[in-house]
Design a protein that fits this description.
Number of domains of chain A: 2
Shape of chain B: elongated
Strand content of chain A: under 5%
Radius of gyration of chain A: 19 Å
Distance between the termini of chain B: 135 Å
Strand content of chain B: under 5%
Number of strands of chain A: 0
Radius of gyration of chain B: 47 Å
Helix content of chain B: over 70%
Structural class of chain A: mainly alpha
Number of strands of chain B: 0
Oligomer: heterodimer
Largest sheet of chain B: none
Order of helices and strands of chain B: HHH
């Protein structure tokens, strides 16, 4: 926990200063998680503000201060999920749109052959974003929390109030789908680079 | 058999590469520094949402009051129309019509015996 339970209780009772301290303590961590969940740095602050806005108006529903962090993660993943759904409706981008350059970059990155300057970071984000576009928003959020954020199945179970076995099955299927798309994209990129030589 | 082993090897290397890609993705998305506007913007949004909910709350209260007033008015109107209705005859249309009919109509028809033609 980054804060004392007492601070959470004060914020629950409507103490604005306590809520302010709570946001200051968690905002960097939450913004980082959102950045990795949505993959679009330009929208991270907006989604982050939405998370704390929801926290402000739902804090009175929190049963006890001990479950504050899973609660905050739940709000974060829900806000990221809503953003991704809206974005998908706008973009309708598909896995098939994974450009040849993105595939080559993803492959090169996996082999750790490149330096990671900002341009390349952007391309990594785009490559992973395109790969994760092949699964549903729910699975995308779940997969990112597990594979990128490094949350355990137990932690995920606490956040989602779901049994670990059910999560395991869901994560296995989602990962298999992403892996299949990754393998297909890699084969395509190998074919393209082979035909060039 | 060899083909299966090759597929498994490829799958294994893809797994490793995908893990490496996820790790690279984590490095490519470090925790961003919040901008100076983060907190002021957040409080602005909170206040705007509170105002909206206050406006909606007020609107809802007004609607409830209006609905109550309307139901009282309608109740009064209905009870008035009932009292007026009691001043009218309670018989049905057919009953009133039957009363109005002169019973003479239904008297037996007196038939004069026909004059002897002989």
């Amino acid at each position: 926990m980054l804060v004392e339970f007492e601070l959470i209780k004060r914020a629950q009772e409507g103490d604005g200063a306590a809520f302010n301290q709570l946001v200051l303590a968690y905002r960097k961590r939450i913004l980082g998680t959102i950045a990795r969940l949505i993959g679009h740095p330009e929208d991270v602050e907006d989604v982050g503000q939405e998370v704390f806005l929801r926290l402000y108006f739902s804090l009175d529903q929190l049963r006890s201060a001990e479950v504050f962090e899973p609660w905050l993660y739940r709000l974060t993943s829900n806000a990221a999920y809503d953003y991704l759904r809206k974005r998908r409706r706008r973009m309708e981008s598909r896995m098939a749109d994974l450009s040849e350059q993105q595939v080559v970059m993803a492959d090169a990155l996996a082999s750790e052959k490149v330096d990671r300057d900002e341009g390349q970071r952007k391309r990594i984000r785009e490559a992973v974003d395109s790969l994760l576009d092949g699964v549903s928003e729910e699975d995308r959020v779940l997969l990112t929390l597990k594979e990128v954020e490094g949350l355990s199945l137990k932690e995920l179970g606490t956040i989602y109030h779901v049994k670990e076995n059910a999560l395991k099955v869901r994560l296995f299927r989602a990962r298999r789908r992403v892996l299949k798309a990754f393998a297909t994209a890699r084969k395509r990129s190998v074919g393209v680079s082979g035909s060039r030589q | 058999m060899d083909h299966d082993n090759m597929d498994q090897d490829n799958m294994g290397s893809d797994e490793t590469r995908l893990n490496a890609l996820f790790a690279a993705y984590r490095d490519a998305c470090p925790d961003p520094e919040p901008s100076a506007n983060f907190m002021p913007m957040l409080w602005q949004k909170i206040e705007a949402r509170e105002q909206t909910s206050t406006v909606f709350g007020r609107l809802a209260r007004n609607l409830v009051t209006a609905a109550l007033a309307l139901s009282v008015i309608l109740g009064l109107a209905v009870s008035l129309s009932h009292s007026r209705a009691s001043a009218l005859p309670s018989e049905s249309y057919v009953e009133v019509l039957a009363e109005d009919q002169n019973l003479d109509y239904f008297e037996p028809v007196h038939i004069e015996p026909a004059a002897d033609q002989h």
